[in-house]
């Protein structure tokens, strides 16, 4: 049986950032546009996952046959927002052959010797791929801004540099789906506490994450600036409340389906004569 749960407003419309988005007012427990419970959401995720996988296969097939287009999913959010889980639960539903995944940490010595977009450019998805960024070039105006890792006049310029860079990427055939993942301060505390309670979660715990909590207002300010200055028609931001993981997974699945549907993909035509090949095979 199909679920009764529905989007009353499409995810793309309900989650799209706009000039009125105030980071400080985001309700991380909300499920904008979606009418349904966790059990509904989980069932729907399975159904929509099949749609996503079918579209991704077409994208991949096209990429193997000369279609240069690709998707770039940018996951940006505070620690514990659920970036890793998003990759496992959403990207995990598609064929890994067609995925290129990059997690961006503190820049290496080599990366530090280059402009901030150098490592980003190198990780862009090839034709037919869904590229996934777990953190991204936005760290260079988030953690970098919050902790004054470069002078203000340097990070100030980066918003424009990012917009120019993304424009170039989009014009080259890559649709960028930018997802800002918001977890509440309370939920973050609960998720960090869980990491301290379970042997299988210690590896995710980083004592520095607790220190970062005291910078929450500065991070909110930095996220606000990101939305204010880098939300463009070509590369829009989507605001995804993440206290309910099932909602976040369902939401990003929908955003990816929408982006892929806009490609209006078709199966690559054969570059051989099908009838001739059938005869040859029959005789082989
Ligand atoms: P995690 O995602 O938990 O593996 O942590 C990666 C860490 O790398 C986070 O603390 C980020 O803030 C940090 N990071 C990522 N990019 C940058 C950057 N450009 N400059 C400084 N720190 C960064
Ligand atoms: Mg971490």
TrEMBL record:
- One GO biological process term: polyphosphate metabolic process
Q: Could you tell me which Pfam families the record lists for this protein?
A: PPK2
GO terms, molecular function: polyphosphate kinase activity
* Protein's recorded name: Polyphosphate kinase-2-related domain-containing protein
Q: Does the keyword Kinase apply?
A: yes
Keywords on record: Kinase, Transferase
The domain of life is Bacteria
- Domain Polyphosphate kinase-2-related positions: 42-262
Q: Which SUPFAM superfamilies match?
A: P-loop containing nucleoside triphosphate hydrolases (SSF52540)
InterPro entries, alphabetically?
Answer: P-loop_NTPase, Polyphosphate_phosphotransfera, PPK2-rel_1, PPK2-related
| Source organism (scientific name) | Rhodococcoides trifolii
Q: Gene3D superfamilies, from UniProt? A: P-loop containing nucleotide triphosphate hydrolases
